[in-house]
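User: Predict the structure for this protein chain, please.
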Amino acid sequence: MIDSLEGTQHNKWKEISAEVEKASNRIKEVVFKTAFEKNAYLSDRFKANIYLKREDQQVVRSFKIRGAYNKMSQLSLEERKRGVVCSSAGNHAQGFALACQKLGISGIIYMPTPTPTQKINKVKKFGQEFIEVRLVGDTYDDAYAKAHEECIMRNAVFIHPFNDYDVIAGQGTVAVEMLAEQKNLDYVLIAVGGGGLLSGVSSYFKTNSPQTKIIAVEAKGAPSFHTSLKKGHATSLSSIDTFADGIAVKQMGDLCFELCRDAVSDSLLVSEGKICSTILDLYNEEAIVVEPAGAVSVAALEQLDDIEGKKIGVVICGGNNDINRTQEIKERALLFEGKKHYFLIRFPQRAGALREFLESLGPNDDITHFEYTKKTNRTSGPALVGLELNDAKDFDDLIKRFAQNGINHQHLNNNPMLFEMLV
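Assistant: Here is the predicted structure, written as structure tokens:
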């Protein structure tokens, strides 16, 4: 087990790389060797050779089992008897639970109370009789605090989701499999939240394929690494958008940041709308089901310059998507693509006003939302109207027809409270 790293940055990468190779042997009987294959659809679209590392096909549908098992398999007999504890809102809990079951270690998992039942049931399925799930508080921070209290009270071992060298080494085994399949990669795109996956993979590539450019990718609403790079140290964000929950952290690990800061060639941000559009695109075109964190690296491809003919590895880090989020994902995607628009329409309270509005719509414009209550003692009344366009380019013509027909309207798409009310 690694307690600390000494020496130059290159020495640290080399030491982590050696531990990654040990971890690869340690976890091979438990972890799937996931596919790393060329994707024809994306390769044709970007005129490059794009290979997807499919951690969505992992036994727990994310890479998290790699780090959890590598850490826990090295615990002493005395530490195993004391038991293990973790806090998680999803993927780490599933990896932790399976590791407990495989190693026969008793574990307690603290999860936020609003965690979907589907995720809780998956955790229980993987952990079987070896784990206990406790729901506390409303946020991950609440669960994290309770987990630490439990560790102190029971003298148990806390299994961190990312900020631990043995966890980092386990996550880095993704890179071992990638380089075994494909040499001379020009780029590797990796999602980053806490930084465990990025730290392990980048350390291994810097040691064994230093010419490969590592690109870190985050959701625009939770730019912990991007902000930390600008500040020069692991920085806590005051608030984040938790939509891409698998990578939504206020502060990445300080151990992770020190390994990553000089290993990456670039740090890219992707909007939540673009992530949603990519989720739907991967499903519709390739039947690949990914969670928001799993889509973010693919979503960043179009931000890369001069990639024609290049060899690119893209890590799809997870596929634990909740079907209950489908409508929200579709709505965000349509708004991002400019195909969905909301208006406040002020209708004159007279016969024929609605007909005039309908005549202003194009032949392919679809009304998806209409909310109106007739007001008393007023000459006009407002209606909340949602329109789905066949093509984003139709928007300008729609606004022109509104003007020509005297439709009193206010465009609401940039109102941040609107989306929360409607979806």
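DSSP finds 18 helices and 14 strands in the chain.
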